[in-house]
């Protein structure tokens, strides 16, 4: 018997990076997984193929989760294929750094629309598909919600909002046995952090120098904690933010 046998999960932004690893780890524990993506159909299909080729169940579903109509379509498809939902991982997120003088309304709304509004929209729709026994929401926040870096005021604020939403929804939904927790990673090597220029340079070295365990994270470091929050191993834990940072 695996930890998540018979469970249905949606992982937003699972075509690459942390979300892809979470999707694969949930599936390895027996969950059927909806691999959501915005643009990377090829990436999402590859993750689905990996899951299916190892005996798991998964489908890829395109949806920009910052848009209400597309969020509704994502959960309608999940309902149609799998019949209900037990686990929602709000992973899709973007990080862009701007100095104070470079902040614009457009740059503010781009990050808030996905990282905050998108997470609220998926949670709102997702809980409608949880069964009478409840469900699980896992939000991927960030260490910068509590230890912001220079030039990250917008992104750090989105993740501070995610922490607050996590605690608020945990109180709001606890009586329905819906647990809501957050995982707050330090720097993790992903397609996104490579693209952002955070890997293989002085920034990575600086982070490692301040990290007692001496290395940056890999997606699996986060995915294993997501499995813990998704399973009954964490049955009496809700409203928590778990920093995973090698001790940064
Ligand atoms: P990544 O490699 O850039 O992957 C981002 C994923 O999100 C992709 O699957 C992407 O899909 C999807 N996505 C982007 N916009 C979307 C939208 N509008 N709707 C649906 N999906 C969308 O990112 P990552 O580094 O794995 O980060 C994942 C999460 O962890 C984010 O919330 C990030 O803030 C958080 N985090 C990351 C780190 C880190 O160091 N990596 C640290 C702390 C927190 P497409 O490929 O289709 O665009």
Radius of gyration: 17 Å
Number of domains: 1
Mean pLDDT: 98
- From N to C, what is the helix and strand string? EHEHEHEHEHEHHHE
Structural class: alpha/beta
Note the overall shape. Answer: globular
**Strand residues, percent:** 15-25%
Largest sheet: 7 strands, parallel
Helix amount = 40-55%
> Which compounds are bound in this model?
NADP nicotinamide-adenine-dinucleotide phosphate
Distance between the termini: 36 Å
CATH class category label: Alpha Beta
State the CATH architecture.
3-Layer(aba) Sandwich
Using DSSP, what is the number of strands?
Answer: 7
Question: What is the fourth-level CATH superfamily?
Answer: NAD(P)-binding Rossmann-like Domain
Give the count of helical stretches. Answer: 8
Spatial sequence of strands, sheet with the most strands: 3-2-1-4-5-6-7
CATH topology: Rossmann fold
Explain this structure.
This protein has 248 residues and is of the alpha/beta class. It has a single domain, classed as 3-Layer(aba) Sandwich (Rossmann fold). It has eight helices and seven strands, in the order βαβαβαβαβαβαααβ. It has a seven-stranded parallel β-sheet, with helices on both faces. α2 (41-53) links the parallel β2 and β3. The longest helix is centred in the middle third of the chain and has 24 residues, at 105-128. The chain binds NADP nicotinamide-adenine-dinucleotide phosphate. NADP nicotinamide-adenine-dinucleotide phosphate is lined by residues 12-19, 36-40, 43, 64-66, 91-95, 114, 140, 142, 185, 187-188, 190-193.
